[in-house]
Amino acid sequence: MNKETLKKILLPLIVLVLIIQVWSGIAKIVEDFPTPSDTYVYAFGGVTADGDEIEGVLSDPFYVENQDDKGIFWQIMASLERVFGGFALAIIVGVPIGLLVGMSKNVQYALEPFIQIFKPVSPLAWLPLLLFVFQDINTTAVSTIFVTSIWPIIINTALGVKNVNEDYLNVAKVLQFSPIEKVFQIILPVAVPFIFTGMRLSLGIAWLVIVAAEMLTGGIGIGFWIWDEYNNLAYHNIIIGIIIVGIIGFILDVIMGRIADYFDYRKNV
């Protein structure tokens, strides 16, 4: 094990110990705030500091009591299903628009003001309007993810097009490529790394949005589960939910990062 690998293991562990110490300090100051040890018990089961025997949230993540009462695994799956639905729509719509914005000054002039206006709008602002339009929890969540996660894909795709070397475009003119041929043989090979960077950012936003969306729309999902635990005053489970959301977000980012690196010709030279 080399020095750099050792640092990558030890330094996060040191930070983790510090976080647990700060967490324990907050639990001593704030009355009834969950301690790290009790939160562990609420996650995996056991006996709390007060002597209560608890069946942990993660001890049976696959249980299904009824349509509205399911284990944490099914809550996560429901959220991921909505996330990937909205994310897929954002890719399907965002990449072609980004190509058009990057290839045409007129399209850029026409769309850029609206991209900059709608890009910073919070998902919580879109949610009530979309819920009014669709009158359906799942469709509302997917459409909210789509509307809020499409912008990084459009912007990064356009940026990738603009990074195509002018010499390549001149070659396409000499060879009399059609617009479709120019896109697939000249532009996309250069723009792909930028597109995947946009997709990586977009997926992170999608996972961020779904928690807030589910808190407001209800149903099955990790966001609603966290909100339901708040209503039940189960603060230990809220912390567990936060950690689960963070870990899944980290895993999604790592996966997208690996995919982006695989298609990045600059890192495969």
Structure commentary:
This protein has 269 residues and is mostly helical. The relative contact order is 0.11. A hairpin with a 5-residue loop joins strand 1 and strand 2. The protein is globular, with a radius of gyration of 23 Å. The model has no long low-confidence stretch (mean pLDDT 87). It is built from 10 helices and 4 strands. Helix content is 77%, strand content 3%. The strands form 2 sheets. A two-stranded antiparallel ribbon has the order 1-2. A two-stranded antiparallel ribbon has the order 3-4. The protein folds into 2 domains: 1-33; 75-267, MetI-like fold. It has helices at residues 3-29, 36-44, 72-103, 105-118, 123-134, 137-162, 166-174, 179-217, 222-231, 235-263, and strands at 46-47, 53-54, 64-66, 69-70.
The N- and C-terminal alpha carbons lie at a distance of 27 Å
Look at the structure and give the CATH class of the largest domain: Mainly Alpha
pLDDT averaged residue by residue: 87
**CATH topology title of the largest domain:** MetI-like fold
Count of DSSP-assigned helices = 10
Estimated share of beta-strand residues: under 5%
Global morphology? globular
CATH superfamily of the largest domain: MetI-like
Q: What is the alpha-carbon Rg in Å?
A: 23 Å
- What is the N-to-C order of secondary-structure elements (H for helix, E for strand)? HHEEEEHHHHHHHH
